[in-house]
């Protein structure tokens, strides 16, 4: 039976990583979002944002789409846009890995690089200025409810189903915060006692995919009441854990996933019992030109 590539978004596997814990009364499960066709958790949000905008008649094949991205959302949008015959321009900092840039271009997207000095915030400002002055449509993943609703519709239900309703803690890195907002909303509706744990970088850390936003850039979809606890991780721990996941468990992922797993282990070793699900948000192959896996 044939299928479309977008039908392969979601239903990603859970892998048992309990061997990483000292506490044998806790189970740690990693949700491998790199198994999405575009290679990351962002496929879910990209698909929902594009499909919903099409269904509402906000965009069509003549619309000039534009979006700022640090990488994974851009790849996902480029892939989904290609399926629907849409043109899109993606704006990202010039220090993004070349794998990201080439993948977006392979899907047919136009890629514009902004100064590394101003980071993703600068890319966001660039796009917002362009939208004000031209005929562009920005999905605005940071303020678009279709971002978090993707996870309410899919990620949360999958976790609830695949843990046989036994999940007690959900751990996710926070960037746009769509993953944690949508998954939290669904899981809390099933059991209000499930604990939602967000992961942020420590003040001196630079971890791609995890952000501690300045107030003026805080995603508008973020609702602090949906997160029970925030654990901070440093860059070295996130880096070392990404390497450990690959070399010991065969889980090939990026640094933000290393950060989330580090937080999940910290959490798990102090619980009396529980089932933790932590998001592994992408694949490690889009970091090979960086020094992440240089030992």
Condensed summary:
It catalyses: O-acetyl-L-serine + hydrogen sulfide = L-cysteine + acetate. With about 300 residues, this protein is of the alpha/beta class.
Task: List descriptors.
8 helices, 295 residues, 4-stranded parallel β-sheet, globular, alpha/beta
Q: Uncertain segments of ≥5 residues (pLDDT<50)?
A: none
**Overall pLDDT metric:** 94
How many helix segments? 8
Number of strands: 10
The SSE order reads EEHEHEHEHEHEHEEHHE
The major β-sheet equals: 6 strands, mixed
Strand order of the largest sheet: 1-2-10-7-8-9
Distance between the termini: 44 Å
Please state roughly what percent of the residues sit in beta strands, choosing from under 5%, 5-15%, 15-25%, 25-35%, 35-45% or over 45%: 15-25%
Q: What class do helices, strands and sheet pairing give?
A: alpha/beta
Shape: globular
Question: What's the Cα radius of gyration?
Answer: 18 Å
Q: How much helix, percentage-wise, in residues?
A: 25-40%
What order do the helices and strands come in, and which of them pair?
Elements lengths: L13 E3 L9 E7 L9 H14 L8 E5 L3 H13 L3 E6 L4 H9 L3 E5 L4 H15 L2 E3 L6 H18 L6 E5 L4 H13 L4 E7 L27 E5 L1 H15 L5 H14 L5 E7 L15
Parallel strand pairs: 2-10, 3-4, 3-6, 4-5, 7-8, 7-10, 8-9
Antiparallel strand pairs: 1-2
Helix pairs in contact: 1-2, 1-5, 2-3, 5-6, 7-8
InterPro entries: Cys_synth, Cys_Synth/Cystath_Beta-Synth, CysM, P-phosphate_BS, TrpB-like_PALP, TrpB-like_PALP_sf
Enzyme class: transferase
Catalytic activity: O-acetyl-L-serine + hydrogen sulfide = L-cysteine + acetate
